[in-house]
Fold:
Amino acid sequence: MKNCLARMLLIGALSVPAISSAEVVVYSARNEQLIKPLFDAYTQETGVAVKFVTDKEGPLMARLKAEGKNTRADLFMTVDAGNLWQAANEGLLQPVSSKTLQANIPGHLHDPDNEWFGLSVRARTLVYNKNMVKPGELSTYEDLASTKWKNRLCLRTSKKVYNQSLVAMMIWEHGEGKTEDIVKGWVGNLATAPFPDDTKAMEAVAAGQCDVTVVNTYYYGRLMEKKPTLPLALFWPNQGLKNKAAGVHVNVSGAGVTKHAKNPQGAIKLLEWLASAKAQNLYADVNLEYPVNPQVQPDKTVTAWGGFKHNLINVAEAGKLQAKATMLMDRVGYK
Ligand code: FE
Structure:
């Protein structure tokens, strides 16, 4: 009996290396509450364990760099194409060839060199005060620079990558000169100093401090869930245009296989699963984001906001033009 137990323990001990060699290690700038249910579902379905470390994207990228070949990370996850581009640009990721990823993720929402892939879509759009603005008065991001919005605009700080990416994409659309005029116009129209986050900017709009702002829709969703009586509404800008500036600016949260992954095949399988219909709803819905896979419907709350045309710029441009965008915002005094 004792022998038998010892034998079982021995088998148990021997089986550990087999399991751990299949495990996937993720460094994630997305928080635990968002990714744990997803990874648990993956483990339940496949038997593959997923270990993860969460932190802000800056420290995680620094850690990947410092660890080099010795890193245990197979996959790096973060928000904003600007950050994903940065990771690829610093040589922290590797290209992935996968028909499944190509089929499930639209071309403008992954790296043209396939080093990272969008897994959820976030729309950066306008939110206005329904008591102060008729939707017909709103039209485009560019129009927020016109004098009719003098002292009526609130913005989040330019220090946030979301705004750097937005301005970077506008440079791609309009060139640097025209974009500088637009952003200068925004700054001239500010009712008050920029806010540290999207929610505070919307609260200022609701309180009548200003009439319109630019935010990611999931912050609007979260705020309205908490305070449904706020006089706020979403507006989808740039819908009627036919040029490069047509469509609502979208960005992604996403992931890429690390350069020195010990289990790159396992990391690719996890990525493919995250882009699959089943995982897409789990992933996007928790944070009121949009699925990246066009075959998957968003959550009910999100669907109720109505459909809109995306701007079709490849989101990688947000990274490529980020340095120009931050310098431009600095020049026009956008704090
Ligand atoms: Fe966010």
User: Anything to note?
Assistant: Residues 1-20 have pLDDT under 50 and may be disordered. Residues 2-121+252-297 form a domain with the D-Maltodextrin-Binding Protein; domain 2 fold (CATH 3.40.190.10).
